[in-house]
C-alpha cells in the first residue's frame, strides 16, 4: 500500500490548503467596493468547474449587484445587511436532475476528444435509472450540485482576497417568484461576495478530527 507523505509544515505551506483553512464567513463588507462583470464571470467560471453527477451541470447563478436588484432581494432575504453591503450576492440555483440532458451535456466532451461517442448512451442509461420518476433524488442532486459550485466560488473568492458568506435566510418562494426561476429550479442558497471591511472574525475552531472521523 502506498501512502502520500506530507509533514505538517508542508501542509501548512500549501497555498490551496491555506486558503481553505483561513476562510471565514464575512459579516462586514466594504460598501463602496464593486466587482466588474469579468470578475463575477470568473468566479462563476471557477464555480462551474465543480463536480456534478453525470456531468449534468444542473445549476444556474444570478448575480445581484445593482442597487435596484439588491432592493428587490433585501426584504425577501430577512433584510440581512450583507445583501445591500456586499458587492454582489449570488442566488445559487439548483436544477432538478434531468437525465435527458446527458447527451447534450456530453456533446462538448465528445467534441473535445475526451470521451468516445459510443459511451454517451452508457452514461445516459444509468442516469435515467437513477433519476427518472425519482423526484426526491432529482431534488437532492439539485442541492448537491449547487452546493459543490458554491463551495468552489467561496474558496476562489478567498484566494482573490474577497470575503463571502453563504446564507439560507430567505423566503424561497418569494425569491423564486421575484427572480423568475423555472419550475425545475430551486433557490438553494444566497452567497454574498466582496471586499471586506474590518470587524470580521477569523475562522472559528472546529470539532476535533477524532470526534468526526472513524476508520473502517
From TrEMBL:
Name of the protein described by the UniProt record: Nitroreductase
Residue ranges of domain Nitroreductase in the record: 20-194
Molecular-function annotations in GO: oxidoreductase activity
Tree of life domain: Bacteria
UniProt xrefs under InterPro entries: Nitroreductase (IPR029479), Nitroreductase-like (IPR000415)
SUPFAM superfamilies: FMN-dependent nitroreductase-like (SSF55469)
Keyword Cell inner membrane (UniProt): no
Similarity annotation: Belongs to the nitroreductase family.
Keywords: Oxidoreductase
Amino acid at each position: 500500500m502506498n501512502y502520500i507523505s506530507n509533514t505538517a509544515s508542508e501542509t501548512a505551506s500549501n497555498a490551496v490548503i491555506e486558503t481553505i483553512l483561513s476562510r471565514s464567513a464575512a459579516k462586514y463588507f466594504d460598501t463602496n467596493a464593486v466587482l466588474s462583470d469579468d470578475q463575477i464571470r470568473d468566479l462563476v467560471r471557477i464555480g462551474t468547474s465543480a463536480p456534478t453527477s453525470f456531468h449534468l451541470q444542473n445549476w444556474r447563478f444570478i448575480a445581484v449587484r445593482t442597487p435596484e436588484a439588491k432592493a428587490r432581494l433585501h426584504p425577501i432575504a430577512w433584510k440581512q445587511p450583507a445583501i445591500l453591503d456586499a458587492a454582489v450576492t449570488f442566488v445559487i440555483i439548483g436544477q432538478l436532475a434531468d437525465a435527458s440532458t446527458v447527451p447534450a451535456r456530453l456533446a462538448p466532451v465528445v467534441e473535445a476528444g475526451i470521451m468516445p461517442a459510443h459511451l454517451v448512451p452508457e452514461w445516459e442509461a444509468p442516469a435515467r435509472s437513477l433519476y427518472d420518476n425519482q423526484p426526491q433524488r432529482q431534488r437532492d442532486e439539485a442541492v448537491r450540485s449547487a452546493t459543490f459550485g458554491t463551495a468552489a466560488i467561496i474558496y476562489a473568492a478567498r484566494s482573490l482576497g474577497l470575503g463571502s458568506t453563504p446564507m439560507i435566510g430567505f423566503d424561497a418562494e418569494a425569491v423564486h417568484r421575484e427572480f423568475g426561476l423555472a419550475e425545475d429550479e430551486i433557490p438553494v442558497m444566497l452567497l454574498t461576495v466582496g471586499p471586506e471591511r474590518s470587524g470580521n472574525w477569523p475562522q472559528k475552531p472546529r470539532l476535533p478530527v477524532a470526534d468526526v472521523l472513524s476508520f473502517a
